[in-house]
Amino acid sequence: MTEHNHQENDFYHRIIEFVEEKKKPLIIGTLAVAAIVAGYFLYETYVSKPKQKESLELLAKVQDYFKQDSFRLVVNGAPGFKSAVQISSDYSGTKSGNLANYYAGVSYLKLGEYDNAIKYLKKFDSNGDKLVGALALACIGDAYVEKTEFKEGLNYYKQAIDYSINELTTPIHAQKALNVYIELKQYDDALQLIDRLNNEKNIPDDFKKELKKYQGLIEAKLGKYNPDVNKK
User: Which terminus, N or C, of the chain has the lesser number of Cβ atoms within 10 Å?
Assistant: First the structure.
């Protein structure tokens, strides 16, 4: 084996390990961010400020159980406690009912009930909020990917990226999209996404370094990898 081939092979295996290690943590990462957003920002924006008195107390209890990772209680409720699913139904068309869809959708995703997660997250309206909208779309993508419906999942990851380019969520959503592109062997599309993100001002430099690793892996698969170029 030549030195060039040895370098390429070594790089290729290191990047495969990198991508494999990233897959599950990325989904966990999105859920963690989604939980934080649901636990504070959404509640403050859609419930507390508008002072929807009738549903305020109900959603406060949902929020408390959500923060405690009691996701089964969030979606099923208990004696004396109305679930997010019930609030979604009883207060349909209101801001509180809308927010209940988000709590229910993310909780179902945490519980591995992916069809229900998709159902409620699709009912949620972020009302133009870029961060929340991107997170909801990415969570729908997670549910489809967990169902091994990769093309549909990829579609929602792409929507999440397009919905908001930001330092917090875009790196997570982009890595998920790249993982699925690789799974589907859509290498040219993956390289286009990498090129686009490298030209975005809001993408952190540390993430652009990770993009270079993805680019090296994809180019190796296409037989285009040049170790001298990728060192730069």
Answer: C
